Amino acid sequence: MRKNSIKNTRINGEVQKILAEVIRGEIKDPRIPEFTSVVSVEVAPDLKNCKAFISVFGDDEVAAKAIEGLNSASGFIKNRLARELNLRNTPDLHFFIDQSIAYGVDMSRKIDEVIAADEAKAHN
Question: Residue 70 sits in which domain range?
Answer without folding.
Answer: 6-99
